[in-house]
Amino acid sequence: MKVKITEKLELNKDDNWRINLHSFYNITQVLFTEINILQLILGKSEQLEKVMDMISDLKDALTNPERTLSSFKGMRNFKANIFSLIDQSVINNHNLSKKQLDQLEESLTGLEKVVTVTENRAEDFIKLLTHQNEWINFDIETLVMKMEDVMKAMSIHSKGRYGIVFDKSAQQENDYLINITIDAEQNNILLPALFPDVIRDLTANARKYSDPGSQIDCTLKQSTDHITLIVRDNGYGIPADEIPNVVKYGYRASNVDGNQTYGDGFGLTKAYMIVSNNNGSLWIDSELGKFTEVTIEIPQPQE
Hints:
Elements: E1 2-4, H1 13-20, H2 22-42, H3 46-61, H4 65-73, H5 78-91, H6 98-129, E2 135-139, H7 140-157, E3 163-165, E4 175-183, E5 188-192, H8 195-208, E6 215-222, E7 226-233, H9 267-277, E8 281-287, E9 291-299
Parallel strand pairs: 3-4, 4-6
Antiparallel strand pairs: 1-8, 2-5, 6-7, 7-9, 8-9
Helix pairs in contact: 2-3, 2-6, 3-5, 6-7, 7-8, 8-9
């Protein structure tokens, strides 16, 4: 049954800030995990402890708007500094086995992807923060590329538990197939400034609450008077009586509440917040054990 969400969000200033930055909290958790893996391969070292301190400083800064912006503006050297320290730690390990070297290469590949996503997200956030209540033009090719980069980083971080592909012919048994379609008349599309976060979050949610091998369809359409986003999976579904609640701050449906996942359950809350701020509507259609489909419709701003 398709349900139009009409709940009123009760959010304070701190809630709003945390929702806007929830994906960065998730990223810091992934970074911590990747460095822990490096410590298992290389052993603990002063250099890797410094990397841990850098990530901790980034996470701590997220609680304060001024510290966040200062930290994000300094992230142009984040990747270079992290890998400089890791290189020093690697140099100090002369007797790594072939197996350890292979593990090291795999770990560094994953870490490089995650750090790149972190830098890109920070750069985007700085630009968008000053325009968060505006609509801006996004280049479609770049929008899709950045979405795919985030999904690829997720896949690498899974350490073989699943893969993510964007082409049906490349899908294997343990791969999620993600279809991203953007239908617009030109090579760019006019969206609320923070809307790319909504697209990424809802697609990531669909992946999170579906089994490997599932298909996720993400379709964004632009018409003369509104934009429409539809994200559909064939995953766990949501209990019918809980559908109106899933947009609430930190709420998780009872059938997935025990799942071990990164994140604080803010994806749908953020989507609904941005939809509400732009006079839009959000519907959720779901059936347990079969699918969930989230539909968003937002009117285009008037000239």
